[in-house]
Specification:
The chain is α/β, with parallel strands linked by helices and 442 residues long. It has 16 helices and 15 strands. Helix 6 links the parallel strand 7 and strand 8.
Length: 442
Amino acid sequence: MLRAAALRCPRGAARRLSSSAAEAVAVAASPAAAGAQQRPYLDEGDWSYHREWWGEEDGPGEGAQTVFRRHSECGNGVVSVSSYPASRPASEHWPAMERWLQERNARLYPESAGADQFKILGYQWRVMRFNDHTRQSTAKVMTCYRTSGQRSLFLMQQPHVLAVPYIKSMVSAGLTTLPCSSYDLPQAASGQNDMKILCIGHGGGSLPLFLASKFRGASIHIVEIDPVVVSASIEAMGFPMSSVKGLSSESMLPADADDLLWGGIHDRIFLHIADAEDFIVNDSNQYDLVFIDAYDGDDVFPRKLWDADGTFMKNLEKKVHPVHGTVVVNLHSDSELSESGVASSNAQFHSIHPMGKHVSQVCRAYREHFGLVFTAAVPWLCNITLVACRDKAIASGAARLGLSRRDFVLGKVLSKSDMVDRALGLPFPCLAYVKNGFTLVE
């Protein structure tokens, strides 16, 4: 969740990186640095491209095309998806993707290997909004068609592209924290170890698709309460339709789209249309990593997802691995609003960030159930990433080394950043996102 008001937040709340972190991100985004660090590709979701998909402050803006629009009965108001042309990848790179599609098609249908041809129509940003102005998520989508057969138009979300900084922050903070408790992340990436991930809140589905594409050993469960949001992600944002459990609507996409485009990735994704509180009570899985990004059309993070005495928090604690289990939460609020008196005394702040006055309570609730909580500020946006994990696993040793808990935890997390970058082939540096505004919640 990111709101259109983010870039005009007062007191510098449209987040800026610290000078050192900003330099790290800028260097990593440059073509020369990408070659020097042997990054597999440039970051197509870099913030420098945000003008291609940001639109206007109060709506999609000129040049946008509405490709989905439907009213939600789950508190999200009008759910819409707008499309914007994307400049990357350039058209000269399209033939390589067309050849890949034809090779995939030939393996599925050997008898028609010479007859079917694929042509790319283009790449677009697809932006989901609630009530026309609150940006819920952004994804890059490839549109292509098969020259023979019926229903030959395909949409494929690009799983390697994370366009929104808060998702990069969540990924960076969560994936660098997990191995601090002796979890073998490279083994899960290569498929040698099983991994269970839970995503609460779906949006366009860019986070679970990214994780499924990077971790061959991962099975990923997604919980989304709103079937309209799920329909929008499939019909307009290129999310694999066969991953969804319990959606009865008939898709206009080709029946073989998932097998052709996803090559088995979709078989490890399970999207449940359910209330998160009910799901976590009845779920039998134990998760290594949990991501929570759940907001309604009023930009509110439901209280039951952070009430320390509530059913959800008590059951979440039981469903997360007792040693290395890590929970990552997106808080759409400027951290400055958590200071006493700021949010309650300023109606403008309150109208922009309903969660502002509750940030400290959310942090305390997760610390009570998991032991250790830290936050990182998201660059360029009014978002905070909260990470909760087991304190005995990650903070032991600070006193022996004569370090403060804050410096010890930060050093331990940052020490894993290069390993995560290399193991997953990330086009963006974890380190800059984790250390930006790092705060240990005491």
